[in-house]
Design a protein that fits this description.
Layout (H helix, E strand, L loop, with lengths): L2 E4 L30 E5 L4 E5 H16 L2 H4 L2 H13 L8 H5 L5 E7 L6 E7 L9 E10 L2 E12 L3 H15 L8 H18 L1 H4 L3 E2 L1 E7 L3 E7 L3 E6 L2 E4 L10 H6 L4 E2 L7 E2 L9 E2 L12 E6 L4 E7 L1 H4 L4 H9 L4 H14 L6 E7 L3
Antiparallel strand pairs: 1-16, 2-3, 4-5, 5-18, 6-7, 7-8, 7-9, 8-15, 9-10, 10-16, 11-12, 11-17, 13-14, 17-18
Helix pairs in contact: 1-3, 5-6, 10-11
Length: 368
């Protein structure tokens, strides 16, 4: 297995402001007036439904939030109110949780490549915090232009779930629509990360003040793996049972120079982790408009060739990595031929070790 890395500062993507719409290969269709379909994704599989139905769903979600409104008005009045909101384009960038209905505290699933040689499993569990689940994932194989792509990702949100929900629907689509994806995946991934962040920032009035980490893995034709990340969500590859970290944990202390050069500072309060401006515990993230002048969102990117020695890939949010070393995660994942069971066991072990954060995990098994 050959693993390569180009430094993030090499060929840094331009600061392009792009509000382009997206969605390729089942990743979703942009929300907004004029689109005949809306995709509501609820952490697991994407399901299409007409905009009219989405309006009704949003109406009842809003009613639930307001409490007694549903008891005092007819369904016709409720739907009429939802129609008014749509006419004002309120739902341009709302998250799937706002459009989709209730979310369970845990979910899991699995799938496989077209020939069944490679399989994946995922599992997500809500943490102990009182806020809603803020972890989102992608795990699927798709066929595009005669190629089979494995698309895997973890998005760990903070200060709300709108940004990770947006990334779940848009980031892979933005990568795949880059013209140079098939000839220069590194450049395409860098450009798409930047454009996606610019779009999130331009829609901050809808998406809120929060942000998200990201770790994405694209497997091309089962042999060429591209992994990218911002923040502290991590990907670990196993070759002959040895753990290889494919990502960089972007932490304030390790990127203090960049933060201070941008006019920010890193706090180190007793009993707390280092934070950018005393607030954010990662030095790179999507969103976070109020901190963006002191943060970076350019990804670190690594490439690896998958060969007969490559057995598993583990992607997870920091809810796992706070309590588990890379080699431990690989050892646990390799014990299970079923990657869904492996993902569940990794999360169970993290919970046993008293991880209190949301925990999300995707395990890809390349053979056996």
């Amino acid at each position: 297995m050959t693993v390569g890395r180009r430094p993030a500062d090499a060929q840094s993507p331009p600061n392009v402001k792009n509000r382009g719409r997206c969605f390729v290969g089942g990743c979703g269709i942009g929300i907004g007036i004029g689109h005949p379909w809306h995709v509501a994704t609820n952490h697991t599989n994407s399901t299409q439904q007409p905009v009219a139905e989405a309006r009704h769903i949003f109406a009842f979600e809003l009613i639930h939030f307001l409490g007694t409104f549903a008891e005092e008005n007819s369904v016709g009045q409720i739907r009429g109110f939802a129609g008014i909101l749509f006419s004002m384009d309120w739902l341009c960038c709302f998250s799937s949780s706002q459009l989709g209905g209730g979310r369970s505290s845990s979910t899991s699933g699995k799938g496989k490549s077209s020939e069944g040689m490679m399989r994946f499993g995922f599992s997500l569990v809500k943490g102990k915090a009182s806020h809603p689940m803020e972890d989102y994932h992608v795990a699927k194989f798709v066929q595009i232009q005669g190629h089979e792509l494995g698309l895997f990702a973890i998005y760990d949100g903070h200060l709300g779930d709108s940004v990770p929900a947006y990334l779940q629907k848009h980031l892979f689509a933005n990568i795949l629509k880059e013209e140079d994806f098939w000839v220069d995946p590194y450049r395409a991934i860098s450009k798409a990360y930047d454009k996606t962040d610019q779009t999130i920032l331009s829609h901050s009035s809808d998406l809120g003040r929060g942000g998200s980490t990201a770790v994405t893995a694209i497997l091309i034709n089962g042999i060429n793996l591209w992994v990218a990340n911002v923040g502290d969500s991590r990907a670990v590859l196993s070759s002959r049972g040895q753990a290889i970290q494919m990502t960089t944990d972007h932490e304030p202390n390790t990127e203090r120079g960049s933060i201070e050069n941008r006019g920010g500072f890193v706090s180190n309060m007793p009993g707390d982790v280092p934070r950018v401006n005393g607030q954010l515990a990662v030095s790179r993230a999507f969103g976070d408009k109020s901190l963006k002048s002191h943060l970076r969102s350019d990804p670190d990117i690594r490439n690896a060739n998958v060969d007969s020695n490559t057995d598993v890939l583990v992607l997870a949010s920091d809810g796992l990595w706070k309590v588990m070393a890379n080699q431990e995660a690989v050892d646990i994942a390799r014990r299970f031929k079923d990657p869904q069971k492996a993902a569940k066991q990794l999360i169970a072990e993290a919970v046993k070790r008293e991880s209190k954060d949301d925990i999300s995990c995707v395990v890809v098994r390349f053979r056996g």
